[in-house]
Amino acid sequence: MAFPTLPPGALVPPGAPGIEPRWTSSDKSAVGTAVSVASRVWFTASHGILNEIYAPRLDMACVRDFGFIVTADGYFSEEKRDADHQVHAVEDGVPAFRLVNTARDGRYRISKTILSDPEREVVLQDLRFEALAGKHSDYRLHALIAPHLVNGGADNTAWYGDFKGRPMLFAEGSGRALAIAASVPWLARSAGYAGFSDGWQALSRGEELKEEYHCAPSGNVALSGTLDMEATEGRAQIAIGFGTQPEEAALRAILSLEQGVEPALKHFRNGWRDWQGGLLALDEPHEPGQLNRFRVSTGVLATHRDDASGAIIASLSIPWGFNKSDDDLGGYHLVWTRDLVETAGGLLAAGAGTDARAVLNYLSAIQEADGHWVQNAWLDGRPYWHGIQMDETAFPILLYDMLLRAGEIDASGAGRYLPMIEAAAAYIVRNGPATQQDRWEEDAGYSPFTLAVEIAGLLAAADAVEAAGRLSAAQYLREVADGWSERIEEWTYASDTELSRRLGIDGYYVRIATATDSSSSLGRDFIPIRNRDDGAAVIEADLLLSPDALALVRFGLRSADDPRILGTVAAIDAELRRDLPAGPYWYRYNDDGYGERNDGAPFAGSGVGRLWPLLTGERAHYELAAGRPDEARRLLAALEASASDGGLLPEQIWDSEDVPERELFLGRPSGSAMPLVWAHAEHIKLLRSIRDGVIFDMPPQTVARYVAGQPPIAPFTWRLTDKRTVMAAGRSLRIELSETALVHWSTDAWASVTDCHTRDTGFGTHICDLPTKMLGPGIIVFTIFWTARQQWEGTDFHIEVI
């Protein structure tokens, strides 16, 4: 069946291999799956039709879209373009959906219930076609399906044929297959190449489907079928099955059809009711018929979860997918460690501790040998992009600590995670505090957000190793954390700038500042902005702002009323805040280019950054920390107001005049990812934080050490990657190296010399603490002998004591 023998009279459709394959809209109105490991299929919907369907893994999109075309004499209408759409979940927290598409010309209505079969890899549609003008027999209903098996529209083969005498539609590619069965007969079937010989081409010209187009090999293909709806008064059930072989996919589709939609929906409902029933009651008051937004968010988080591994992807969407070729294999259906931990925090906040712990187990399994996690990965841990983001190495430590404090990990089970924590802490110590990429995956240097997560992670790791009896190791990690916390202002706080003078403030924390070997203090360096519509640009680091700086409060390193934080808030609001009718929203940073272009055209490597509802949720957490719960609730309402009609939270919302032809409206979701799972996790955490009156995921270690208390003075640390040249008197000098060495040093220009052997910290660093606390002003000079290599560094280094 993989490549059928063509029957007499069959023709190979013209137009091979079809137009360039593209994905579809990322503006999802629904996402769903069953609470069942047996199902292994996930679906999305937009514009009233099924969009990407993923099987048998969350990172394997297999269908671009599946919609219907209605024809009559001299009439052609496509439901996704020519109808008004409504979407409703079958009940709160149960992500099966009823889609209602009413033709704008008033001639027909298509209603369908969509869900995945809890027992197998099948998506079901329970369909009803109604003629609102004329007779039912005047119309023909045609299914149109675009296979994109295993993340690609190229090199798919489509055909129609029979399985055990049952007429079906088939496609296969990249080792996967799909089969489509209907509960009513097919009046006609066809396979063709997209844009040339697919069913849409024939039907739009007023022709019937071309059944002589029996098979379309190796290309961007489409399947079409005309359904016989007469005998059933416009009702039909359709099953889309998936498998490794066409026969397997066909069998699954037929089994689901013979079982029927109602039993599948009952099983589907019960699974989700049981899962939702185990969560905390964070539901907000709402009228009957209104969205229960808490249950929408919990459903979104669980829908993006792989039950078998514990992994959660960033989104079942591909931002601006309709404008992207299949070269963009990953889209957002990949695992980002940062998003994953933020999402696990949302699950924990909702009371789904078991699911949050499964995330930690998954992270432990895919950690790289050197201790870090890759920028993003497929479900099985294979890297997709290879950038290094230091916060992504610290976040899993914080997840462990949250689970431990929540009682989801007991003392007897904590030891299994100690190797993961030690390896991650070692990677941070060796490679931090500067990051190759900030949390927006764009620039290198010192980022307040990354610093906050790293320092909090090191303190949590210190607690873990101390609990295991390694007291000196814990002390070392705390000293590193203290030293980095002490220097946050040196690295990222700008004062007496053009902006600060204009705003009448002392200064503010910047978005990111470049790190160099010889000078680590914030200077007037330049940060590249590579995603602008007007080409590559740069901006001075001391004028580059971001709400990221509020992470210093969120993660407990600075108090909400710290004058430096207050100045930063004033600067952020002056430059990045936009008040819309629903409330305030913020941009990621000034001159951001990740968003639609000025005219609303989709982002394609450059554009203009738009407003992020996620940042409104983060700001609400800051307001709660500042003791303003009413303002936090107002921002919660603004966050929720940015959602789609179905309650899905977008990555970005449109911030300019309406562009109806591009479906862009002020304050409504733009063409970026929707839903953004991270935003739904932030929504849940905000509900929990408001209920509890404290920030749910604020680490207690940092608050106790840097806000409520005062840590001991940390050693003054010198590294080859951070060659500091001036030290205040009264500090001990720590030389921190990547391998064992002897430090040869003097305080009198080599008239007398002392040797200090480094000691192994156990975290991939070797330190030598020089007894310099009693030194007065002067010069310390030293050099390094690498003992393993038996080699001198060959350079004298100088530090002035003042």
UniProtKB/TrEMBL annotation:
Signal peptide: none annotated. InterPro entries: 6-hairpin_glycosidase_sf, 6hp_glycosidase-like_sf, Gal_mutarotase_sf_dom, GH-type_carb-bd, GH15-like, Glucoamylase_bac, Glucodextranase_N. Residues 14-276 form the Glucodextranase N-terminal domain. Pfam families: Glucodextran_N, Glyco_hydro_15. CDD domains: GH15_N. It comes from the Bacteria. Coiled coil: none annotated. GO terms for molecular function: carbohydrate binding; glycosyltransferase activity; hydrolase activity, hydrolyzing O-glycosyl compounds. This is Glucan 1,4-alpha-glucosidase. It comes from Rhizobium altiplani.
